[in-house]
Amino acid sequence: MPLLREFKDFINKGNVVDLAIAVVVGGAFGKIVTALVSDLVMPLVNWVVPQGDWRKWELTPLHFRLGDLIGTVVDFLVVSFVVFLVMVKVVSAARLVPKPGEAPAMTRACPECLEMVPVAARRCRACTSVLVAP
Fold first, then answer.
1. Burial class (CB in 10 A: 0-12, 13-18, 19+), 71
2. The overall pTM is greater than 0.70
C-alpha cells in the first residue's frame, strides 16, 4: 500500500489543492468573461461589420471557419486584458498601500556595505560612505 500512501501525501500537499482551486475558479472566470464578450463586445463588432454574424464566415469550399477563429482570438484578447487589469494593476496597487497600523520604513540599506541606517542619515555609521537622500 505504499503507492496509496504516496498518492495521499501528494494530494494533501497545499500546492495541489491550491492548483485545483485555481483551475475551478479560472474556469468560472473564463465563463464570465466569455459571456461578457459574447453578450457585450460581439454585438458591437457585428454592428460594425456589415455582413452581420461574422462568426459564421467560412473560407474556401473546405469550410475553414475563419469567423470562429477571429472570435476566439478576440475572446482571448479580452480575457488577457481583464486578467492583466485585475492581476497586475489592482494587485500591485493594493501592495503599495500600507496596511492600517503599519508604520513607514524608518531604516534603509547602505549601498556600499548593506548596513541598515536611519532614513535621515547622511553618512553610514559602519563604512562612513556618503549616503544620497532617498
1. buried
2. no
Range of the domain at 59: 2-97
Domain shared by 13 and 71, yes or no: yes
Question: What amino acid occupies position 85?
Answer: L
For residue 107, list its beta bridge partners. 118
Contact 100, 89 (CB under 8 A): no
Cell numbers given for 61:
469550399
Grid cell 500512501 is found at: 5
The residue type found at 10 is: F
- Say if residue 129's pLDDT is above 80: yes
CB atoms within 10 A of CB 100: 5
Question: What DSSP character marks residue 64?
Answer: B
* pLDDT for residue 31: 85
